[in-house]
Amino acid sequence: MRLVACRDCHAQFDVTDVAAPFFDCRCGASIRNEPQAAVDAAVQRCSACGALLAEKAEHCDYCRAAVVRAGALSLICPECYARNEETAKFCVSCGVEFRPEALPQEQDAPLACPACETELAVRGVGGVWVRECSKCHGLWVPGERFESLVQRAIEASRQRAEMGLATPVTTRQSVDRNFRYRDCPVCHGRMYRKNYGKRSGVIVDWCGSHGTWLDADELEQIAAFIASGGLRDAAPSATPGLSEGPRMTAEQFKAMAAVEHMLEKERVQRERNETWGGSVTGSRSLLGLLVDLLR
Asked: How far is 201 from 197, CA to CA, in rounded Å?
């Protein structure tokens, strides 16, 4: 496989069978299709999971994969040009994930923002191309790219820990009762509202067939939830935090919003009166029943 990366949005493309000297990226940049001079770089990261390796390690401490330091290293990283084995998932030098996109078509069909109907523009987020609304700053993440976006958040959290930086504090999000269902910008079908990771409080709009809509700041809220260990026990999934469990119905969402509103009022009251406790216990029991219902 021969990969090239866009210098602007860092999207990757497999150009093994592409003869054209140039082609256009989805972000509008022109990509030069030419072989890069390979670099013999030190092996610093696991090719299976991207984690940092101890010096002279034979196995990764995170995923226990064997560390390959020699042999047929035919895959060239499109970012740092380090040599990698053909089956590598991450560059052993810079740690970038190898995840080539399908080659862009002549024109991608324009998509409208499901929140304000503004045409969505293509942009790169951590090497993953998504579509952003210039008006409300929401993000449309195609289904096959959601896992990559979440993995970027997990890697950023891991790097913070390795650098000794504090994990961001996760603030429980309040639920807006004045919500409205939105239509998928691809199929125009009604999207489902999902509590990301079942307990984050970040309610995203999800089309199981085409992708996920994130309102402004929801990506940052999800990243903070992941950094605090919110997906620690989650099973591997193409749409982590979203696809497990039944879809949330309108009645279930309204019930959850009502309980959240009640808990917020009681938390305020408890701050005013430290002896308050009876109804809070009852409300938590009600919330527990609701959580069981949504599982």
From this structure: 9
Residues 171, 203, single domain; the answer is yes
Give me the number of domains the chain comprises: 3
What are φ and ψ of residue 75, in 5° steps? Answer: -90, 120
Q: Is residue 254 part of a domain?
A: yes
Question: pLDDT tens for residues 45-76?
Answer: 999 988 888 888 999 988 899 998 888 899 99
* Pairwise CA distance, residues 121 & 140, whole Å: 10
Angle, nearest 10°, between helix axes 278-294 and 250-272?
Answer: 160
Domain end residue (candidates: 49, 74, 104): 104
Residue 21 makes CB contacts below 8 A (sequence gap 6+) with 32, 33, 34
Residues 132 and 58 in one domain: no
Q: What is the pLDDT of residue 19?
A: 84
Distance CA 74, CA 83 (A): 6
Average pLDDT value over all residues in the chain: 76
> Three-class SS of residue 225?
helix
Rounded distance between C-alpha atoms, residue 253 and residue 177, angstroms: 9
Q: Are 223 and 170 in contact (CB under 8 A)?
A: no
Residue 259's domain spans which residues? 250-294
pLDDT tens for each residue of 4-31? 998 877 888 899 888 888 888 877 788 8
For 60-70, b/e burial (b = at least 16 CB within 10 A) is beeeeeebbee
235 located within any domain: no
Q: What is the DSSP letter of 291?
A: H
